[in-house]
Amino acid sequence: MPAEFTDRAGQPEIVADFGSALAQASILVVDDEPGIRNFLVKIFRERCQLVDVAADAAEASRKLDMQHFDVVVLDNVMPGTNGLEWLAQQRATGFFTDVILMTAYADLDTAIDALRIGVVDFVVKPFRSNQLLSAVARCLDRTRLQRENSVLRHELSAAAGEIQLRDKLIGESAAIRQVRDAIARVAPIPTSVLITGESGTGKEVAARSLHALSDRADKLFVPINCGAIPADMIESELFGHLKGSFTGATRSREGLLMHAQGGTVFLDEIAELPYALQSRLLRVLEDRRVRPVGSEREVPFDARFVFATNADLQRRIEEGTFRADLYFRINVMQIRLPPLRNRDNDVQEFATLFMRDISQRLGLPPVEIGENIRARFLRYDWPGNVRELQNVIERAVILGGFSDDFDLPLDDDGDDQTLMAVEKRHILTVLREADGNREEAARRLGISRKTIDRKCASWNV
């Protein structure tokens, strides 16, 4: 039911329900008048998760250093530093939170200055409760949509085929049931989780399942592939940056880590994070604060971290490419995903699911998976795991059937002994023994990493 308040003129006012977004918000009120502060606390206290107040700019700065706020409600006219001057100083040091300006002087010059500095909305004194609550709700919606759009753009830069693997952690084999049980146990706990396993085993699916079962499920899940972002861009992508902090930084931008405020950060291929940035990530994990590139300001940060890798991190430590202190910090709870060859009859469930989804996506009729094909599915080792199975199904849908030369054993004892087939089996065997680590497999084989990448691409692995 709506609540009734009395406005500053003493008239009763019905305040509407603004939904769950406001209920989870944290608000900072900055105003030098005690009456205004008390009035705003009364408005927000029963509708927001957190409301705090500051009587001047200096106190507001201290509060921001201690706590993250979703919205700041700022008075302009205050003794000492006024609201817009204070906001300009904060924006210059990496403050990205939306700000609503309260002012009794709604002149054009003030409005232009406020927009240039980064004010998102205005309320003109005297105002009614619903006006301010509506402005706060608009800010929360704006921030949510901006972050969701940014995360979606980042996800779409990944391989399109991988998106099809993110639906859910399916299968009824004993191996995958153990994984689901482990996820269910650790999901309610804020502990960092390290997910390991060969390439294509569904590590991101497991991370999304963990997020969905946690108390952060209503916040953003932000997947970041450390191996897919160019080395010269990854620091800015993760931590954000200030305008002018490097060549090409034409505006300040919030990093992907801050997009996950209150939610879950999934750092895939963590072994590929540049060594120089590993110490910065360790600092974030320990202090729960993020410093944008070019800023001296560290912003309070709260999110759950989930990491994934197909590499042997202990070997990377021995090779000097991964920090031991970061490894011990992220390896609190480890969940290892089983390869498809160890998941019994799950390959049949995946094949049926992929056949349905891929045929619908391509607009082509599904292909019958006969008993002979299903038997070959069960005999095959699937070095590329679920992703390789998906490629086999997609190729069959495009061709209208399973050809005799697709990459599975022809029969129980009829292995193809051509030179190309022997080469392929040998490379994939070594790659599997190296847990999918192509650099390590290349070293063992005495060939270049590019050669392995080219061969795997030609085999759709």
CATH class placement of the largest domain: Alpha Beta
Our measurement of the CA-to-CA distance between the termini, rounded to an integer number of angstroms, reads 57 Å
Using the coordinates shown, work out and report the CATH topology of the largest domain.
Answer: Rossmann fold
CATH superfamily of the largest domain: P-loop containing nucleotide triphosphate hydrolases
Please state how the strands of the largest beta sheet are arranged side by side.
4-3-5-6-7
Number of E strands: 16
- What is the level-2 CATH architecture name of the largest domain? 3-Layer(aba) Sandwich
The biggest beta sheet reads: 5 strands, parallel
Query: Roughly what is the average pLDDT, rounded to an integer?
Result: 84
Could you name the ranges where pLDDT drops below 50 across 5 or more consecutive residues? 1-16, 158-167, 409-417
Classify the helix fraction into a percent range.
Answer: 40-55%
Q: Give the helix/strand class.
A: alpha/beta
Q: Strand portion, in percent?
A: 5-15%
Shape: elongated
Integer count of domains: 3
What's the alpha carbon Rg, rounded to whole Å? 27 Å
Count of discrete alpha- or pi-helical segments spanning 4 or more residues: 20
